[in-house]
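Board notes (copied after class):
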Amino acid sequence: MDNLVKFTVNPENRDELIALVDEINAHAALSEEEKSRLMAEVANLREHSREAFF
């Protein structure tokens, strides 16, 4: 089953976020710990993107 995640990002973080998502997709067989680490990085970028808009 495919999951779709959609959100708005700060253009300053766009390339870094795309690279992280690509890394996650390329390594679907990652351990749960590795997946958690990558998703935490994505969440951090999302939070910084939100801060930039306020």
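Comment from the instructor: The CA atoms of residues 10 and 49 lie 5 Å apart. The chain has a mean pLDDT of 76.
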